[in-house]
UniProtKB/TrEMBL annotation:
It comes from Regulus satrapa (Golden-crowned kinglet). It comes from the Eukaryota. InterPro entries: AlkB_tRNA_MeTrf/Diox, Methyltransf_11, SAM-dependent_MTases_sf. The lineage of its organism: Eukaryota, Metazoa, Chordata, Craniata, Vertebrata. GO terms for cellular component: cytoplasm; nucleus. It holds the Pfam family Methyltransf_11. Residues 86-119 are annotated as: Disordered. GO terms for biological process: tRNA methylation; tRNA wobble uridine modification. Keywords: Methyltransferase, Transferase. This is ALKB8 protein. Residues 1-72 form the Methyltransferase type domain.
Amino acid sequence: VGCDRSKNLVDICGEKHFQAFVCDALSVPVRSGSCDACISIAVIHHFSTAERRLATIQELARLLRPGGTALIYVWAMEQKYKNQKSKYLKEKNGSKNKDREMDAGTAQRPLSDQGPDNSAWSDQLLKDESCGAKPVADLRLPVHTNRTSFHSQDLLVPWHLKGGTKKKEESVDTVLVPGGSKELQELSPVFHRYYHVFCEGELEALCRSLDCVRVQKSYYDQGNWCVILEKL
């Protein structure tokens, strides 16, 4: 059984005859202790405070039966590890115009420019200077350049919606899509997603702070920090 915050993604699962429902990772409507195993892939790094990231892991543990296991993946600050580039960095040269499309017009910009409602949560961001990350200052978050190393733990990553239609009430940036003809050059919206990228040991430390779980394994995998934990 799968769940996601995005109704559109859940609808795709339904079309493929998979069981899935819409919910929030902080409050999953599933009975406590009813799961043999759970996975959380690329979810927890979207929460903007350390308290919420920990609460998400607690909720994951709540779902597990005693002896049940969970696998967690989050994006790593270290995209170069043991002298090896992650797949994310390696794909830069082979992506042709994709990254230029995604990054166009998204230079370093203050968070306050992204929309009227962002300042409410931006001042709650964890200002972590570990592993060489720059602290967030003046309620500003850097906009990441795709397929490059991270310079801040808290940042916005541009998401280029190809072929999307912009509703009147949406407040998004637009970029000019490169193309061979004028017909192909049309404005497409760019959304900025919040990320907290994890330093080495950070995810493991969060998991170890919970008395109800035991960390079985902690490892690095292609630009991600990963933990396998067991419910006690």
